[in-house]
Amino acid sequence: MSYPNGHQTQGNLEEYRAFLLRCWQAVSGDKSTWRFSLVQIRDEERKLGFACLEELFLYLKGELGIDQQ
């Protein structure tokens, strides 16, 4: 199977995930914090928000079945 980025795989489409990641800085007074939202392309109605990069990574690891070492 060929994917948009040119990579090949023997698996099925369930092994391919596409996400739209948005990153922005939220400013409160003199403090700014990065915020993140993630939309899985197949399910554009479902938008997920994350308060920090670590939460985003934990979600992606779970979604993609990556071991939580």
Task: Provide an overview of this structure.
- There is one protein chain.
- Helices cover 17% and strands 35% of the residues.
- It has 69 residues and is α+β, with helices and mostly antiparallel strands.
- It has a domain at 17-64.
- Strands 1-2-3 form a three-stranded antiparallel sheet.
- The relative contact order is 0.15.
- The model has no long low-confidence stretch (mean pLDDT 80).
Mean pLDDT: 80
**What is the overall silhouette?**
elongated
Task: State the order of secondary-structure elements, H for helix, E for strand.
Answer: EEEH
Strand proportion, as a percent range, falls in 25-35%
Distance between the termini: 30 Å
Q: Briefly note the structural class of the backbone.
A: alpha+beta
Any low-confidence stretches, pLDDT <50, length ≥5?
none
Number of strand segments: 3
Taking the sheet with the most strands, its summary is: 3 strands, antiparallel
In angstroms, what is the radius of gyration? 15 Å
Helix content: 10-25%
> What is the count of helical runs?
1
Q: Spatial order of the strands in the main sheet? A: 1-2-3
